[in-house]
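Ticket #4471: structure output looks truncated?

Reporter: J.K.
Steps to reproduce: submitted the chain below (614 residues) through the standard prediction queue, then opened the result file.
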Amino acid sequence: MHVSHPRTRRSVLLTATAALVVSGALLTSPPANAADSPAPAEVSPHAAQTIDDFGASGAWWVNDLKNFDPKVQARVAELLFSRQGLDLSAYRYNIGGGGTGVTYAPRAPEDFLNSDGGYDWSKDKAGRYFLYAAAKYGVKDLIGFVNSAPAAWTTNGKSCGGYLKAENEQDFAKYIADVTDHFARQGVRLDYISPFNEPDNSFADCGQEGMPVPVDRRDDIVRALGAEQRARHQKTGIIADESSKTTQFNSELPQWISQPDTAQYVSKLAHHTYDNPSDADRAKVYETSKAAGKQSWSTEICCFGKGGTGWAQEYDPTIDGGLNLSRIIYKDFATAHDSAFQWWVALSEMIGSDPLAKNDDGWNDGLIYYDPNYATNGNQSLYFTKRYYALGQYSRFVQPGSVAHNVTGAPDGVEVSAYDRDGQWVVVVNNHNTTATPLNLHFNSATPVRATQAVRTSADENWAKVARPAVRGGTATATLAARSITTYVFDQRGHGSSALSGALMGKQSGKCLTADATGAALATCAGSAGQSWSYAPDGTLKGANGYLTAGSSGLTSSAATGDGTQRWLLNSNGQIVNEALGQCLDVSGQATADGSKVILYSCNGGTNEAWTRQ
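Returned output as attached by the reporter:
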């Protein structure tokens, strides 16, 4: 994260606000007039990615919380890690670089390195407290991330704006491995290490720690750390490269990870989304990851506002901010097919002029806030935002190992995510509309038997238990409250093998997909057998002439092969994406005439790549 905004100085005199929990009615019966009932949204029978975790970072705020009452510290740990709180399954611990040269003290974390090359493991007391708390609560993925190497090894002798000196790459690798070993001896195993964060930024203003790493140096650092870990038999994985923008991730990651002996050391691909990526940019993340043969994680985002998900200065504790956070999670999972979502800072002091209302002086960088003037006014209250509750609509219910299923055909203004695990469905629904909206949701694999939970966050509700939706014939029926996020939990029966069947019509052309051994093309929709496709739980699209296949010579229909060239994802935005290549079905040249060629092409968000099932 590269925010350099100054610390808020205005005194805040308000006391802590308790989480407001109000139960509200959820209409579960369909409208009296059947004609008003919407066509069902469809839960894909095919499993997409497996979810690894939901998390947030302990950067910076721990350096203030070290001064708080131990009871408040314990309460924060409970709010983040316990089952009654967010129940986070990932926690990002900041391995500090010493803070040399950093102009803002809370963003200058201590490192453990002494000038004589030894270690002082008593340093970073507050950072260690919350790392140990995460381990105690059983957080699945503990991640150590580095903003800067210790200043002794940077080109400018600072923990900000300097490059890691080439002659100290091995020293840096040994340091990280020593830190990993130390925590393991304390009973805290770091599951992953991120050796550099936002390497595309300069951090020259020194408002925080940060270390630029040129593209041609990233593979060197990864190999040095990976080899050191392997020599010590450490099981800690490496995540990289944490580019601040998806566009840079897509253009720069292929350059360094393709270098000899590098990819073997990389466990997960990490990107940030500060560029407010389009569907095309997110889809390109999936293609980039497929080309590298690795799974992608979205590891940092914050600081959106002004009614959207783009970078903007604003403090917004309302449902507007909560819905925007939930939309980002939805898109990262549904379009980029990331397997993890990790928010930036769990806590922040950037409340601006009022912790209870929108203002333009603060920032949307935290989930929970505290008074920046606690040291002078004694206020150690915690202020909750709807982003806290929005993240919990996922993290409390979608457990690691859950499998995401795409959902198509949701009503306008509604986003639906579905996850399957251990005999249950978890469905998270965003309703961005300002009025109540009916939803019918049809399941095309393991059939839901009954709804067991319904929990909602809205303008006046926080994780409120609400009435459960009706379920009949594999379809759940509900009316969504205006401007709300609702999580439904369903028991399920069996692992059915029902398929979606019908024609696939191009949004731009209004023509239907056909394919044979010679290729794929458009044709006027006529309801013929040659235009009918069956989408199965294994991800295959089978037509009259065989399975739709992405081959070296283009798209064809062919006999079953069982590999990824015949598996497809039907994204909620209409993209049909090949799992082996991460590319979309695309009408070449945006043509619309009968016989126009359908090809595979990088997903770009064009209407010539959008398809609907007929």
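Triage note (M.O.): checked the attachment and the full token line is present. The chain has ten helices and 34 strands.
Status: closed, working as intended.
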